[in-house]
Amino acid sequence: MKTEDSTRATGERIPAETTVTGQKRLERIREAAFNIRSNALIQAEVQGQGYIGQALDIADVLAVLYADQLALRPDDPEWEGRDRCLLSIGHYALALYAALAEAKVLPAEELDTYASDDSRLPMSAMASYTPGVEISGGSLGHGLTIANGIAMGLKRRDNPAFVYNILSDGELNEGSTWEAAAVAGHHQLDNLIAIVDFNDQQADGKSSGVLGMEPVDQKFETFGWIARRVDGHDLPALLTALEELRAEEAGKPRCLVVDTKLGKGVEFLENREKLHFMRVAPDEWAKAHQQLKESYEA
What we know:
Strand content: 5-15%
Oligomer: single chain
Number of strands: 7
Helix content: 40-55%
CATH superfamily: Thiamin diphosphate (ThDP)-binding fold, Pyr/PP domains
Largest sheet: 5 strands, parallel
Order of helices and strands: HEHEHHEHEHHEHEHEH
Shape: globular
């Protein structure tokens, strides 16, 4: 996370290398990814079920963003100079809440209230409930449109902040997503970075089987975007791609397609047949935490 202590108070971005470099920097991000996964499991255990696979698959992306790339003030989530990270896929909330706790926007002890009565942490992320949540993203296919509007507004106010929009491969089946992609390309929204989580899974089955959208990166390029594609669990590749996309000087929006694996880090969850919404038996949670720890220490 880029806090005002190590980066900016006015919107000017300072490269992370000035504070933490090389292996130490990557290890900090790797630890954040582990913490996000661990806290996602802790939250899901409260209900015994949830969108656990998605939370585990997007943890590395969120770790790079919230532990390194985003300009934030944890004690002031509404700071005008902040980078906006929009979770279009609201059902990934387990991971976002864990990332916000890792960034100290939310108190870690609040994660135990996930999806409970009167909690600020509903099952699908909502901006009206939770500090640090930029949009209510439960209705899929709208996130990129909202991101466009925010990016346009920032540019009109000469605010140098960036807008990051995390969306899913299933959302690419929505026509509104491609309408938004066309608008972003037309208006040359070079302060917008879309991150497509390609885990090849949606509610009705394999995304590639429901409606194939490949090659995703080339489609975005056709709409006037700069696009890259990386392994969504390769931290050095993620970090390099996001930094290079942000530094691009061409007046175009940017897209990063990340190939991920549902349940990443917990082997028996990775191999579950039904991955979209998981129920985990009471005696399986300890096993999940143990496998996650083993994968982190390997």
